Amino acid sequence: MYDTIVIGAGLSGMLAAIGRAERGEKVLVLAKGHGATHWSTGCIDLLADVDDPLAGIAQLAIQRPHHPYALAGPAMIEQGIARVRTIGEAADYPFAGNLNRNLLLPTALGALRPTAFAPATMIAGDARQLRDGRPTLIAGFAELRDFFPPLIAANLRAQGIAAEAAQLALPPTQRQHDFSSVTLARLCEQPAFRANLGEQLAAHVRKGGYARIGLPAILGLRHATAVVRDLQNRAGALIFEIPTLPVSVAGMRLYQILEDELLRLGGRIQLGGFVQRAEHIGDTLVAVFSEAAAREQRHTARHWVLATGGILGGGVRATPEGYLYETALALPLQTPDGRAGWFAPRFLDEHGHPVFQSGVRVDQRLRPLDAAGRLVYENVQVVGGALAGYDPIREGCLEGAAIATGWAAGQA
Amino acid sequence: MQTLSTDVLVIGGGATGTGCALDLAMRGIRCILVEKGDITHGTTGRYHGLLHSGGRYVTKDPQSATECAHENAILRRIMPHCIEQTSGFFVITPWDDESYGDVFVTNCHRTGVPVQEISVAEMLRREPALNPRISRVFEVHDGSADSFLATHSVALAAREYGAEIRTYHNVVELVRVGDRVVGAIVEDLRSGERIRIDCTYVLNAAGAWAGKIAAMAGVTVTVVPGKGTMVAMNHRMVNTVVNRCKLPSDGDIIVPIHTVAVIGTTDVHVPDPDVFGIEPEEIQFMLDEGEKLIPGFRQYRALRAWAGVRPLYKDKDVASDRDIPRTFKLLDHEERDGVSGILSIVGGKWTTYRLMAEQTVNELARRLGNTQPCRTASEVLPVPRFEHRAHAMVTVSPDPAAQTPHYWLGKPLALVESEHAAGDLICECELVTRDRIIAAIDAGAHNLDDIRRDVRMGMGPCQGGWCIYRTANLLYERRCADGLSHTHANEAMLHFLQERWKGLTPVLWGDQLRQARLDELIYAGVLGIHRLRALAEPGGGLVTQHPAIATEYVQA
Ligand SMILES: Cc1cc2nc3c(=O)[nH]c(=O)nc-3n(C[C@H](O)[C@H](O)[C@H](O)COP(=O)(O)OP(=O)(O)OC[C@H]3O[C@@H](n4cnc5c(N)ncnc54)[C@H](O)[C@@H]3O)c2cc1C
Ligand SMILES: Cc1cc2nc3c(=O)[nH]c(=O)nc-3n(C[C@H](O)[C@H](O)[C@H](O)COP(=O)(O)OP(=O)(O)OC[C@H]3O[C@@H](n4cnc5c(N)ncnc54)[C@H](O)[C@@H]3O)c2cc1C
Asked: What CATH class does A123-242 carry?
């Protein structure tokens, strides 16, 4: 019997688990697989399209009292982020940034994306510095199909940044083919590979006088900060990473430092189990059943955190007939009425697609409510993407809302 | 205005028009083909994928049945790389009239459609997913056919014989002198420039749009646009085409093609071939019909839905739309309407395109005093360079054993593995390598949707999640020296994302809904493409926006 079982191994679930483990609870994270961290940028988005995220969040909380930020409250946002940052510091993977001012970091298309905190390996790419007139090089490898320097550089130039593009020669390696972001990240941790890379970068700097070099976010898995530091010394220029398409190396690192921390605190993680039904006595959840390799396993705990990530995470699914359901505990959902209202006609509609705001409605303590507003389980809390009434991708608060609600569930 | 001149101006780059251009060119007749979109932009690129045995028409439309049976054998010979030898079943399910079985067999014999009854046990041995409650099974020579590749192969052959093919050229006016059509004004959609093409004959092969072209010459051709919707499922539950053995109806055929099985179709009359939508009821109906053939059909992942419009020609003397024959008709407007210099070829099927072209060009050749015979039934078609070599090999290999009857994703996979090209897979779902994308770009693709039609990029389960980004970048790198700028590349990406989205919304549930959300995370989240909207504009030789090729979306 655990004190707390967290269902879902995304950012929100990991924060809740760390919070509870820290208070001495016996904690298990139970999940089918990794969460959206592995697909995303590895940065911490608080709120996009505002200059001051914290002020924006305060406003939002007034306008939308059911928004996860409003439920978690400003203290949990600040504490949760502070906690992630101390974990990063301790792991030599620090996050830089500010609650009151968004950074603007280049994407793998050369768009400038607001985010509140980024790993130190990306920070030199902030557009405010890139616009100082000194030349920037965007460099990649022809072998990596998830990063194309020429278009990035052209789009940056169109936004007032003196950027140029170059393709690097892949340093000699045992590998012959299929260079994914993850394989390149492992190679970057080999000194010989890095030395060759550093020489090439230094040659570009000598020729082009670049002040900064943007590279795909493949610069190491476990020791990225050291890899970047080493390459900067060799190249004689600042280096910044740019997140690539999934699987995201920077996202994996963020997950990894949280996993290490949870294990250090005595928590356990069990991946590969899909929770598919629950057992309860009245409004108390007693056990869940997970399925792995066609074998059912029963798990019991006093307290539960549902962190299954909504439609993206697989926590909410839709049937062909147009019915949405919560996959783990069969909790009631708040959804748009009728399939006709699920989607906007344009894929990139600025308001997003209503169906993706489907999720679980909760009370002030993040406990699930039914359509009539009645409490469903007194010992369950719902966090992150599984919550109803917001669109974390379009609002640019994917990580922020996950951290805030996850941390809140870790405290109460 | 630039003026060109030719013997025959063919309007329409579908199977029919392209087939006519090849036949004309083979016989040494000069011709220019103009198509307002890409090759297969019309119904040919939105059909069901069935190489008809003729079985479907044996009762209601015997002439079509005989034509299909005849052409079926020819197409297998001239385009083996486009056809899968799937064979086909007509099955009687508990929902069908038992007595039609004997009628069906009699009518097959009468129309020359080869047929053989097999036992239900044999059927289940070959296709275990089929409903065991099926009572009778008749096997026919159905196949599945890639109309994109087929039409490109025909166009390639036509070019080799000297035909000029101009895509993204929209006919805006026919030039008439007295009672004679002498040419056309055509808009190049890439530049907006207008060109005049003088010709001895205009051949109207505009399919469902033939009425609109005829109207430009002042004559009335009634084409009733009948919309049909299809759904691609991400699984080949069967390797054989499966038809319900009954009079043709909705949702009664499942065609295995490439990596998917396609169920269709419906028949809804629409006011205009450019104005139609896919209704949720159509999708639900087809899933229900699919269940009758394959129990559990609903549980498979649906990939995408699309719709095409049938070019049904309604003769002046046909009373009801239901009685319109499915066969084709060559209209001589001089005799019919007193306007010379223009012929229209209307109706028909993809399966009969070659025969339609043969009869049309026989008539044109006679009038032009050309005595060359038709050779399209015997010359094997070339394989475009962007086609996967593993498939292309099927055609060149003289060894019948090397000609696997089925599309088999394992074949390109084996090649990719043997060449260590996995890192070069730009579209991982459909195993499309960098080389093939570049070959399609070099062959003149005008946007990402053209590349999609060429190589199937973006047609797999992720519907472009990764490959749209990669392909747009390859396009930019390949073409930036000749004037394609970052703004055009950005626009190409935004355009194609929307193109994929419109066919996805009708089937978004289960894993496909989750996938759509992941694609949104990639493009709106990780890449922030919407932030580049101000840096996107049409141009650079790409056509991404034009009213002439936009399908208007109508919500029910
Ligand atoms: C739902 C559905 C399923 C089908 N399934 C099958 C099947 O499984 N097997 C089969 O054999 N047949 C099938 N058919 C029939 C077959 O698809 C069509 O008969 C065939 O594709 C018609 O080819 P086409 O060249 O005549 O017309 P299209 O392919 O429509 O070509 C006409 C072209 O003319 C162009 N055009 C129009 N106006 C202009 C202009 N002003 N200037 C320039 N160009 C212009 C259009 O863009 C279009 O590309 C199906 C049809 C439908 C609707
Ligand atoms: C033989 C065959 C096999 C195929 N196999 C696959 C496959 O395996 N995987 C796959 O993904 N696809 C497959 N397709 C379908 C293909 O991807 C395209 O859907 C098809 O070629 C039609 O193009 P389209 O989607 O642009 O069609 P359209 O008919 O233009 O679009 C489909 C729908 O979108 C609506 N629409 C049009 N414009 C808009 C707009 N601006 N906004 C909103 N909605 C709009 C239309 O009204 C229609 O309902 C196959 C097609 C064929 C012919």
From this structure: alpha beta
Q: Which residue in A109, A181, A372, A208 sits closest to B525, CA to CA? A: A109
Q: Which residues in chain B are contacts of A40 at CB distance < 8 A?
A: 521, 525-526
ipTM of model = 0.98
Task: Tell me the pLDDT tens digit for each residue of B450-509.
Answer: 999 999 999 999 899 999 999 999 999 999 999 999 999 999 999 999 999 989 999 999
Q: Best residue in B286, B473, B523, B555 to probe A by mutation, most A CBs within 10 Å?
A: B473
Given CA atoms B7, B10, B13, B16 in this order, what sign does their dihedral have?
negative
Residue B369: both structure tokens together: 């005093």
The CATH number of domain B52-143+224-312, selected from 3.30.9.10, 3.40.50.620, 3.60.15.10, 3.55.50.30? 3.30.9.10
Distance CA B268, CA B228 (A): 7
| Ligand 2 atom nearest to CA at B463 | 11
Which residue reads 């299909």 in tokens?
A: B68
State the angle between helix axes of B448-455 and B147-160 in degrees (0 to 180), rounded to the nearest 10: 100
- The DSSP result for A325-351, as a single string, is EETTT----B--SSGGGS--SSTT-TT
Chain segment A119-166, per-residue pLDDT in tens: 999 999 999 999 999 999 999 999 999 999 999 999 999 999 999 999
- Which top CATH class is B2-43+148-221+326-368? alpha beta
Q: Which of B307, B276, B220, B251 lies closest to B46 in space, CA to CA? A: B307
Ligand 2 pocket test target in B36, B43, B46, B451 with most atoms within 8 Å of CB? B46
Contacts of B128 (CB under 8 A, 6+ apart): none
Higher pLDDT: A339 or A374? It is A374
Is pLDDT larger for residue B259 or for residue B551?
Answer: B259
CATH topology of domain A2-93+252-411: FAD/NAD(P)-binding domain (3.50.50)
φ, ψ for residue A239, nearest 5 deg: -125, 140
Kindly report the pTM of this predicted structure: 0.94
Please give the backbone phi and psi of residue B389, each rounded to the nearest 5 degrees, phi first: -60, -30
Bridge partner residues of B231 (DSSP): B263, B305
Amino acid in the structure at residue B425: L
Measure the CA–CA gap between A363 and A71, rounded to whole angstroms.
8
Are both B2-43+148-221+326-368 and B52-143+224-312 of the same fold? Answer: no
CA distance B170 to B46: 19
Assess whether the C-beta atom of B302 lies below 6 angstroms from ligand 2: no
Q: Which of A56, A206, A186, A188 is nearest to A135 (CA)?
A: A206
Contacts of B434 in chain A (CB under 8 A): 145
**What is the DSSP pairing of strand B115-118 with strand B143-145?**
unpaired
Under 8 Å between Cβ of B378 and B57 = no
Coil vs helix vs strand at A165: strand
Map out the domains of chain A as residue ranges: 2-93+252-411, 123-242
Q: Which two tokens stand for residue A286?
A: 């007693």
Joined together, the tokens standing for residue A345 give 């006609």
